[in-house]
Specification:
mainly beta, 1 helix, disordered N terminus, about 260 residues
């Protein structure tokens, strides 16, 4: 998105387990100010939601990981407005919604994890379902609509094929509407009120691990989602094949094309 009139940078290296500071530099001057001390935080991530600068980092106390710490800092006054330590949760690939009100992230690892939505004003974090692994997500349009690729259960390695893990679904919600309703869930554990709910069983071919490390691109005008993913197949205990593939999904009809 557009940068504010302040540039941000972090010193003392990527990991700030001993000491670290976040600086703000005014774009129209040479003034440098200390915005926050980030001692004890590692793997800093910075986002620009509507209400300020959002700093995310791993909170460590000695050798003990306490969870990801979220801080919301006013981008004009540099005053810290909110802080929240989300216990034992590490947020990966956080992205801000186009309207700037929400942050979506994986809570897991690089192959997927629990879908979490964070209110960018209050820093409240809501997890969808810990038995529903999200392997890809993307914001759509200029508002708060989120599209996610979800499979039931967590990583099952070479045993995770389209035959053993058939419930792979493409879903879409208005996060603002979900929040207003209290993030209700359906009987199978996904958030209720999905505008799109398409099951993608059996589209990858026999023996393929479904949608590992997927990325999504959405064309809201054409109503099409492009899914890029790693196709993994196994020969006994050995990985036989790993290559990139893509899948097109029509959001109106559910039709797929590889």
């Amino acid at each position: 998105g557009r940068l504010p009139s302040t540039c941000w940078l972090c010193s003392e290296g990527e990991f700030a387990a001993v000491t670290g500071r976040l600086f703000g530099v005014r774009a129209d001057s040479d003034d440098v100010v200390t915005v926050a001390y980030v001692t004890g935080l590692a793997d800093l991530r910075m986002l620009f939601p509507r209400d300020g600068l959002l700093v995310m980092g791993e909170r460590w106390e000695g050798d003990t990981y306490k969870g990801d710490e979220l801080r919301l800092i006013d981008r004009t006054t540099f005053i810290e407005r909110e802080r929240n330590v989300v216990s034992r949760m590490r947020f990966l690939e956080p992205t801000v919604s186009p309207d700037g009100r929400w942050v979506a992230a994986f809570e897991g690892d690089s192959t997927g994890g629990d879908l979490t939505v964070i209110d960018a004003s209050t820093l409240d974090a809501t997890v969808m379902n810990r038995n529903m692994q999200v392997v890809g997500m993307e914001w759509v349009g200029d508002g708060d609509r989120l599209v996610a690729l979800v499979r039931e259960g967590h990583s099952c390695g070479r045993d995770c094929t389209v035959e053993t893990d058939p419930r792979v679904r493409l879903l879409s919600w208005s996060v603002g509407a979900l929040s207003a309703a209290g993030f209700p869930r359906t009987s199978d554990g996904v958030w209720d009120g999905a505008g799109v709910d398409i099951t993608l069983s059996g589209v990858l071919g026999p023996g393929a691990v479904p949608f590992v490390g997927a990325s999504l691109a959405v064309d809201p005008v054409a109503g099409v989602v492009a899914i890029a993913y790693r196709a993994l197949t196994w020969d006994g205990l050995a990985l036989r094949e790993a290559h990139q593939e893509s899948l097109l999904v029509d959001l109106n009809t559910g039709a797929t094309q590889r």
